Amino acid sequence: MHKDCEKIVIGAEEIAARVQEAAAWLDGRFCGSVPVAVCNLKGSVMFFTDLVRAMKTDVELDFMAVSSYGNETVAAGRPKIKKHLFSSVQGRDVILAEDIVDTGRTLVTLRNFFAERGAKSLTVVTLLDKPSRRKVNVSADFTCFVVEDAFLVGYGLDYAERYRNLPYIAALRRDVYES
Ligand code: PRP
Question: What is the pLDDT of residues 84-134, one digit of tens each?
Fold first, then answer.
């Protein structure tokens, strides 16, 4: 385990097994159509690449980035789209991969984004859900793990852009993020 971490919350094998289940669930939902799988950078990158590789359904891949303001005093907590999709999603089935639903504001922004762009359907798959932190009433269609309100890093999740490449999800030591 990385020296800055307090404990591993979800191990690499447990993640891999659950990602297979998420992929199987998506395969059951989309047999016959070719959805666009969208990765919301950067936190979702590991989850996204593992998820689409575990799927049997043909998918197209696209990428976008939304910045969420963790500090509620900034910009009224409204996330902003920093990078748009490469392709149109008009009339398409869309799968959105998120790493975490926290306050839910990013997911609301993304649901509105895809509705405004005329997506035929939107299926949200999240790796983690922290319902205790929710500020708006929104949820994913498939959640891999419900987690407690700890500072989590790894498998895409960062603190100050670090720890994204850890193969597991771990709680960061308090003295690391409070120093
Ligand atoms: C994180 C995470 C989600 C969002 C969830 O993104 O990837 O997209 O916050 O938070 P919310 O439910 O409170 O809106 P972040 O802005 O940290 O960017 P990153 O993915 O590049 O780390």
Answer: 999 999 999 999 999 999 999 999 999 999 999 999 999 999 999 999 999
**Which amino acid is it at 41?**
L
Ligand 1, residue 102: give the atom nearest the CA.
12
Closest ligand 1 atom to residue 79 Cα is 14
* Spatial CA neighbour of 168 closest among 177, 156, 150: 156
Note the pLDDT tens digit of each residue in 35-87.
999 999 999 999 999 999 999 999 999 999 998 755 443 445 678 899 999 99
As a whole number of angstroms, the distance between CA 90 and CA 92 comes to 5
Q: Is the pTM of this model over 0.90?
A: yes
Q: What is the Rg, in whole angstroms, of the alpha carbon atoms belonging to the chain?
A: 16
Please provide residue 96's backbone torsions phi and psi, each rounded to the nearest 5 degrees: -105, 125
Q: How far is CA 25 from CA 14, 20, 38, 51, 91, in A?
A: 17, 9, 17, 11, 22
The vertex-143 CA angle with 106 and 177, nearest 5°, equals 60
Query: Does residue 43 line the site of ligand 1, with CB under 6 A?
Result: yes
Of 108, 110, 101, whose CA–CA distance to 146 is shortest? 101
